[in-house]
Amino acid sequence: MSQTLPARMKARLLKKPPAMPAAPHLKQAAVLMPILIRKGEPSMLFIRRADHLRSHPGQIAFPGGAREKEDATLAQTALREAEEEVGLPSNYVSISGFLNLHETPSGYLILPVIGLVYQDFLPQAEKSEVAEIFEAPLAFLMNPNNHQRSQREWKGKRHIVYGIPYRRRRIWGVTAGILRSLYERVFREEGEESASGRAIRRG
Question: pTM of whole model > 0.90?
Answer without folding.
Answer: no
